[in-house]
Structure formats: C-alpha cells, structure tokens
C-alpha cells in the first residue's frame, strides 16, 4: 500500500546528483495560548520529505542531516530543502526527514 501511495504522490528530486522520488508533507502546528478562548500566536509549518528505503539502497544514496534535496518538478521551481531531523521509523519501507527550506 505504501509503495502505491508513494508512486502516486511522489515528486522527482535530486539528492547529491542522484535522481530519486520523494513525497513532500506539510503539517501546521498552532503555538500559543489556545485555552480559554485564546488564539494561536504562531502558526508553524512542519515540512518533511519521505523517501522509499529500497530506492535509496538500490541507488546507494546515504541521507544525513544537512543533505540538500531539490524538487525538480517544474511546478515547484526547484524548491530546495536541507534534511534536518530523521523521524522515527513507522515501518521498514520509508525513511522520513523533517526538512528546512533553503
């Protein structure tokens, strides 16, 4: 199932000159006084990229903190990210990193 989702929703990316595919996820987090009818003081975007472990192994790509990833799909104007935090595994198929925009 995860491979089908990845195939359907991934974008082409370049990592150290190697063409891969990755899914781009964005979550929003509200920070601030939310109790007693308050409002969020900050709306923070948490972005991550999800890679397939078998593709990384097949192409001998080692991901680590600080690695540059460029989304090469024309709709995203070469959006560039740097890998930051390796997220905990939720299975053997995926490798997920929290990212920072360049």
Uncertain runs with pLDDT below 50, 5 residues or more? Answer: none
Q: What's the helical proportion of residues? A: 10-25%
Largest sheet geometry = 6 strands, antiparallel, barrel
- Strand tally: 6
* Total DSSP helices: 2
**Range of strand content:** over 45%
Q: Whole-number average pLDDT?
A: 90
Q: Largest beta sheet: what is the strand line-up?
A: 1-2-3-6-5-4
The global form is globular
Gap between N and C termini, in Å?
A: 32 Å
Instruction: Provide the succession of SSEs.
Output: HEEEHEEE
Radius of gyration: 16 Å
- Content-based structural category: mainly beta
How is this structure best described in words?
With 102 residues, this protein is mainly beta. The chain has two helices and six strands, in the order H-E-E-E-H-E-E-E. The chain has helices at residues 2-9, 53-58, and strands spanning 11-15, 18-31, 42-52, 68-71, 80-86, 94-101. Strand 5 (80-86) and strand 6 (94-101) form a beta hairpin. The protein is globular. The N and C termini lie far apart (32 Å). The model has no long low-confidence stretch (mean pLDDT 90).
Question: Nutshell version of this structure?
Answer:
Helices cover 14% and strands 48% of the residues. It is mainly beta and 102 residues long. Strands 1-2-3-6-5-4 form a 6-stranded antiparallel beta barrel.
Topology, element by element:
Layout: H1 2-9, E1 11-15, E2 18-31, E3 42-52, H2 53-58, E4 68-71, E5 80-86, E6 94-101
Antiparallel strand pairs: 1-2, 1-4, 2-3, 3-6, 4-5, 5-6
């Amino acid at each position: 199932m995860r491979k089908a989702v990845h195939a359907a929703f991934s974008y082409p990316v370049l990592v150290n000159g190697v063409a891969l595919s990755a899914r781009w996820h964005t979550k929003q987090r509200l920070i601030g006084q939310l109790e007693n009818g308050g409002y969020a003081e900050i709306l923070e975007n948490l972005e991550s990229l999800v890679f397939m472990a078998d593709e990384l192994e097949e192409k001998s790509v080692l991901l680590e903190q600080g690695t540059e990833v460029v989304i090469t799909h024309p709709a995203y104007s070469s959006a560039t990210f740097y890998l930051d935090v390796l997220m905990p595994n939720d299975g053997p198929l995926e490798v997920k990193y929290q990212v920072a925009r360049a």
